[in-house]
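#dry-run=false #mode=assembly
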Amino acid sequence: MKFTIQINEGPYTHQASDTAYNFAKAALEAGHEIYRVFFYHDGVNNATRLTTPPQDDRNVINRWSELSAAHNLDLVVCVAAAQRRGIADADEARRNGKNADNIAPGFRISGLGQLIEGGIQSDRLVVFGD
Amino acid sequence: MLHTVNKSPFQKNTFESCIKHAAKGSAVLLIEDGVYAALKDSTVSSKLQQAMGDITFYALEPDVNARGLKGKVMDGINLVDYAGFVDLTVKFDRVQSWL
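#status=ok
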């Protein structure tokens, strides 16, 4: 079965990103396909590669990047939510006149249409958030 | 339909809204702080018990255990792991997250 997962909460805020990650992992282990993971609202903060959590804590951002690399996951960050919160890839940084980008490996910035398309293309849309 | 509730019933009213809206034959999965609704003898336990006839209740076991609630969960609530969570989303055709 195909899943799209939506995450509305930032990392280390409460538990939504952790739950979504554990859900995604379990779905992949059961042989399901994750069509897309869409990061919306404060969820876009899961996409910055500049976080440095303590070494004995989980690295929420790297975990997503690694899962994406292992399973070719499409991690999509909402562009409008990202602009508000200072999440930028090289193109967005250039377009908005910023001197740096911070997007983590495996993530890409795109529009809300990607969420709608994910919902249409998938059998299930599961939302995690605050 | 599968409903998920992720906030404590003592913090937000999403649990009560959820069980008021959930149709007969649907399921409610308590996750994160939502698992506090599964406690025995709380101020919301009678509401959950009344809804049990029409709705099947589940709680995410890792979240129950993380909060030290093992053994304090009401009878009739089914405990599932993440694989069980995935299975529930497959079994029911839609998932409504009460956030």
